Amino acid sequence: TLGVKQLIVGVNKMDSTEPPYSEPRFEEIKKEVSSYIKKIGYNPAAVAFVPISGWHGDNMLEPSTKMPWFKGWQVDRKEGKGEGKCLIEALDAILPPARPTDKPLRLPLQDVYKIGGIGTVPVGRVETGILKPGTIVVFAPANITTEVKSVEMHHEALQEAVPGDNVGFNVKNVSVKELRRGYVAGDSKNNPPKGAADFTAQVIVLNHPGQISNGYTPVLDCHTAHIACKFAEIKEKVDRRTGKSTEDNPKSI
């Protein structure tokens, strides 16, 4: 499921079914989609299925009078049950993810600016941890260490930035030329990020015209980094539904 843990299925264009707003057609689509999402790792009981018409606004913000047969959607998940009649209620029932403030700071740089009267201002989104003025940050892989003078979001000063915040922060004694997009900022005193010559990754091949084997050289996009790399060794093939290994050291995938 590529890390997407929660799902809503909006069955659109119900006004275009034959006849319009057909319950059998909705049930047919619900059955087919349930079967498909089950194969890729979702539990259909935890997914809201909502028949809607975006064009006419049916079941978008309030229950539609044109589908009296639809008694509402229900989801059953370990965090509790949820129910409702329209799409906006299904969106409101999505459980917000916990912000990983307890983990070490990681902030991939999106850009670096030089602002007159202020100085060097890297910008990016906090992925984990907390960024505060006074933090001594280190930028990997260049291993540049400096102090954060101030943190801003939407032109307002912050006392601390948490995961999900897109921020700019002013740093001391570092020029714009020393930093670049793709670098990762971390707290120098708490498990700082370090450059790595190699690492083991879990990869899902969605679509590829040929075979992939040892020595394959793709361009890797990781957060804001964009860099060439090489597959040194394909260690195993894994069944993505069960997570169990199906083949060790495959020649190709």
Automatic annotation (TrEMBL):
Q: Which domain of life is it from?
A: Eukaryota
Q: Where is the Translation elongation factor EFTu-like domain?
A: 119-184
Give the UniProt entry's GO cellular component terms.
cytoplasm
Query: Which CDD domains did the record assign?
Result: EF1_alpha_II
Q: Where is the GTP-eEF1A C-terminal domain?
A: 199-252
Is-annotated flag, keyword Cytoplasm?
yes
Among the GO molecular function terms of this UniProt record, one is: GTP binding
User: Which residue intervals define the domain Tr-type G in the entry?
Assistant: 2-96
What UniProt keywords are attached to this protein's entry? Cytoplasm, Elongation factor, GTP-binding, Nucleotide-binding, Phosphoprotein, Protein biosynthesis
Compartments, record wording: Cytoplasm
Q: Which family is this sequence assigned to?
A: Belongs to the TRAFAC class translation factor GTPase superfamily. Classic translation factor GTPase family. EF-Tu/EF-1A subfamily.
Q: What does this protein do?
A: This protein promotes the GTP-dependent binding of aminoacyl-tRNA to the A-site of ribosomes during protein biosynthesis.
What name does this protein carry?
Answer: Elongation factor 1-alpha
Q: Which source organism?
A: Euthrix alessa alessa
